[in-house]
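yo

u said u wanted the structure for the complex thing, so here. seqs first:
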Amino acid sequence: MDPLSPLSSLSYDVGDFLYVIPIAIPALFGMIVLILDIYLGRGSNKTPLALTSGLGCLLTAVAAWALWAPATGAPVMAGTLAPSAFGAVAALAILIGTTLIGFSVAHHSQSADGVGVDLGRSIAHGELYGLLLFATSGMLAMTIANDMVTFFVAIETLSIAVYALTGVERRRARSAEGAMKYFVLGAFSAAFLLYGMSLLYGATGTMRLDVLAETAIKPSDLPMATVGGTLILIGLLFKVGAVPFHAWVPDAYEGAPSAVTGFMSIGVKVAAFAGMFRIVEGLGACGALGADLAGSPVGSWVLWFVAALTVIGGNAGALTQRNPRRLMAYSGIAHTGYLLVALVAFTRQFGHSSDALNMTYAAHDAAAGLLFYLLAYALANAGVFAVINHLERRGEDVDSLDDLAGLAHTQPRSALVMAVCLLSLAGIPGTAGFLGKLWVFRAGVASGDVGLVVLALMASAISLYYYLRIVVIMYMREPQAGTAGASSEDPQRWCSRLAILVAGVLTIWLGVYPPNAILKLVVDGAQALVH
Amino acid sequence: MLASMFVGYVGLAAMGAICLIIGVVALLLSKILGPRRPTRVKQLPYECGVELIQSSARERYSIHFYLVAILFILFDLETVFLFPWAATMRYGVDPNAAMLRSVLLTEVLLFVGVLAVGLFYVWKRRGLEWD
Amino acid sequence: MFPKETALLPAIILIPLLGALFNGLFGKRLGKGIVSTVAVAAPLIAFFFAAALFFGLHAADHGPLLSQTSVVVLKAKKDTAGSSLPGRLNKARRELGKRDDLFKIPEIEGKDRNQVLRLVGPASLAGDEALKTLAHRHNLVVAPAASAAPRSYRYNLGTWIHVGNFKVDFEFVVDRLSIILMLVITGVGFLIHLYSTDYMGAEPRGTYARYFSYLNLFIASMLVLVMGGNLLILFIGWEGVGMCSYLLIGFDYEDAKKAACGTKAFVVNRIGDMGVVLGMFCLLAALAETTAGGTLSLNFQTLNLALGGSTLNAGLIGAGCLLLFFGCTGKSAQIPLHLWLPDAMAGPTPVSALIHAATMVTAGIYLIARMSPIFAGAEVIGVPVLGIVALIGGLTAFFAGAAAIGQDDIKKVLAYSTVSQLGYMFLGVGALAMGAAVFHLVAHAFFKAVLFLGAGAVIHATHTQSMRRMGGLKNYMPTTYWTMAIGALALAGFPLLSGFFSKDMILLATLLRAKAAGAHWIWYVLYLLGLGTGFLTAVYSTRLIGMTFWGDYRGGGPGGRHPHAAPSAMALPLFVLGVLTIGAALLGLPALAAWMEPGAEILPHYLAPVVAQASDYLVNYPAVSSELYHRYEIGGLLVGAMASLFGVAVGWKIWGSRAPSQVGWESQVSGQLASIRQVLANAWYYDEWVNKRFVQPAVLYLSALLWEHVDDNAIDRGLVDGTGRVAVQLSLFTRVFQTGHVARYAAYFVVGAVVILASVHLYSI
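structre next:
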């Protein structure tokens, strides 16, 4: 083969470009929004931006459903992408976040000085929506990336956009501080990720996940592969905010404007978990998760401890928080812990245990549970942040839980959705969060990790305290003058009210009677990942 | 096992050592052999032959410097991508693979189009104006 | 197939339920007129619906068999030879073992050429193509089993529980057994509702509405109990009536004593309910073994067919039946759990009549009759469960009957009488005379309701429950007197009244059971106990009437008001029930005449297809149309009549002829008689004994331990507060790490990464 002509060996089918469409649409709409913002002029109503980005997300969702969902997960585009229903469900969860969060800040007004200002806050809406959509594009690419280079490019596309988003409120010191911390630590973790990838490439000679899964590594290269795999895992654990790589989460969440925090808590986590499962599938199959220890790769046990630390750390940290964004940050860490339970169950299949068949079932359950959980989590978080954004529309910060006092009296509908979404996060039956937790924990039990599941259950019982405390504050306290919770509802803000309504209704719908189409998609997604 | 693992890296280590030695030796040699007659002009920082703009590095620059610099690097680096593309088109692709060639052409046009949109946005946002 | 009628099934339950809801929610704001109209109409409509079902059932019996479970047999084709029949049947049996829809492992029955393979499975079994093919392969044919159950109505609201192969439908079934009880529940229920409109008339509006709401709810629960198609639905009703009973006993909850009585009834019933639940588990376990992986359900039909006479897991079945019977002793007030019923008299008198005499307390008899095919074959370490049932029933009947003689409170007399009569019913059930037991149940529902309602009228008139302060009421309230006299005579088993025939039928069954081959001698003792109870019953019935109605009025005192006659809304039910008491005799006229087959009495004959028959389960049971039967029958009637008449005479002698001035002469008797009276008045000191042996120790040690140490210290302080404290400490601990310094965050990152890398790498090398 002529080393100068690498392209001649690649199978480049023009039809493959179809699979890129769901990734391209958000990027295209990101550009459109940027240009549109210029022509809208300063100080004008920015609702068209939200509508445009919403349209883009809708088109993306349709495209993902139509193009990815029927695909089997076989590699396309010269092996760089592997579209499947798995990617489609993750894409839905991400798009729910982008759309609802985008809608919920549509009515934040801008002042005339170019960078929108409401009472001292400054957010340029064109940049906000543009970055949201660029990040979304990266996230979608991450869920179906089949090549580690593609994967890394995707993860950087989303990361850089989110670093910028964290600091989008550029006249506020906290925002800049959070962005800086996030950026520094993010770059740090990217180095781990990249180093791990290069080591793995050195050991296996491939960057493609599907090839990796079928590679038999030479025993002498195994240590290198294991170190590489572990480094990749560490890089990704940082992205999902697992203890002890979580320290950036509370600061970044608190520093970022609420809208961005909501987006980060949904999109970044969904994309990172989806990508993590796909990469771990490759790592585990080639043995890069380490040698067998009691029937599972040693990586499983490491993840076991990380999961345990994360559920404890997340829930314990949330207990004493007064700032809603910080509280949601710890809540997000706790949810990372629950999802890591699914990851542990997922990795058990790579060991040489005696009941391999059951471990495959458990892995299948874990992948399906993950997807459903991500949907439920995206909806619930979108609901919570949509309400907070709705309240902040006049620039009244919701920086303390006390600002929500009496919300049930002044804005009963918002308070109701907030309560429903919090209950879903706590995993109360009748909400989507319950089914997600049930599914994930069932996988944990099936894979034999009963101890971990019991720990997670106990931790989620503790979580009820801080979720219900918000409900108590909303429903049983009197509104305090001058806080966001004291102002009554404004019928003009139909975009954010729509976002709140959708989040609440879908949370209940998925929890009470999940439609078959979704369930089928979830199971298909798991099927595409675990053969 | 531990030892055998690092056998393959002996060459790398040797290269690192050689680099280190050469660098240290070169610096030492110039220190020892080079004549030193410092004058005030010689002590000044070298700025592409231009006279000093600011007397101290700790003073504040206009933020526009950074903006322009970042924009320059952005577009500069992105145009660099056109070179490997051109090389590939010339030497790497079968001249008769019309389909593949047109796909590659479309790709690079899209790439340039995105750059153009970016430029347009910066322009419209008055990022290129000094005031 | 019968859309109109099956729709009545849920309607019958729904109507009283809606009545309860309506009165419970809105009754307080509406007038008493509306409340009472709604409350009385509900059971009346339900009664009409039940009557419609009764006639529908009658007509449907001539239609085709409709059933959820079917029984088919595989038998030899007429004209084939081939290999031997047992061999072919065995092969077919092995192949059928793979099917998982059968309720029971197929069994080979019959002898020699008549051998068949019996299958119990879903209704589709008869038309199952696979089964036909299989039968054909082995030179066999599929035929419906010989025994065909009569028609029943089913209404399935849908699947309630479906876990693995365990499935419970929310299903109601009305067959011959349940329709009889439904008619009694709604009919007597209606009369008692009507009676209550006057009896409770003086209560304030809110209380009035609450009362009728509970009463309607009770009717609905009781209907669920008898209409439930499986044990779990029955259990819903079982718990529902228990709750209503509790609410109504403690209806006057401001009186702490009455509230305590309600609590006592509830607690004692809970102990029994535990037995029901455990029994259910045992039977389910037995079924799981019988079906070997097939569908598990708690349907009565399935259970009866699959477990009736099964020897596969006799231990589980025996234990299950015994536990269920333990539940029955709670609900139906039998030894050892009978002690709550006398205290239940704290409730309003119509409640005592409806719940604690006519309906709820008979639930135990219903349950055993419903599952009689299983009970008939159940044994615990060689002792037949029904023998235990009969023994408990006989002993309860005797001892409670004696205790009734010592009571001065008119309602307590009736309460012990009820316990005693329920004992009779269990004796009949135990002797496998389900028809007789149900006959006595129906007759008892009528005459005991009369007695209670009459007692209510008396209490209403005299404002006391103590019979010592009554007397001579014959002249003031003649309607009450005559109807109560009829009721008391029926209770006493006075010849030609319903109680006479029903009691006699039970005694006859006991005697025949004793005569069965291999029967234990205890059955003769039970017969004598029953006879003795008949005598005691006659004595206390006469005493009740004598102390209340004869002689002079002892209440009132100087300036006291004279008692008044019962108002019409109270008199009408009394009258109707009095007529029914006499008329019920028709249901069980004995088969004296030669043209009447033994067991051809109307009610037992009607029930025969749906309950177990002694002749089916006892070898050489001397029952089949022999001369012997008629001889025993005539003899039994004569002996029973003599016991009754003798009792009445004794009562008459003692209480009928006493002069009016001798108030409470009983308490002045001395010597041995006085101590006997003491024992009887205290009902054999059973309450005291239970209190000393079980309740006091439980309160002193167990509850102190659970409350102070387990609950207060361990749970509240340790688990509840402790968890919170640990969580908060943990939370404060995590905050220490969140310093805000990026460098430190990076340090955590590196430390974590190094630990992970080291652990993975070092282990993997």
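Residues 1-5, 110-121 of chain A have pLDDT under 50 and may be disordered. The two ends of chain A are 33 Å apart (CA to CA).
cya
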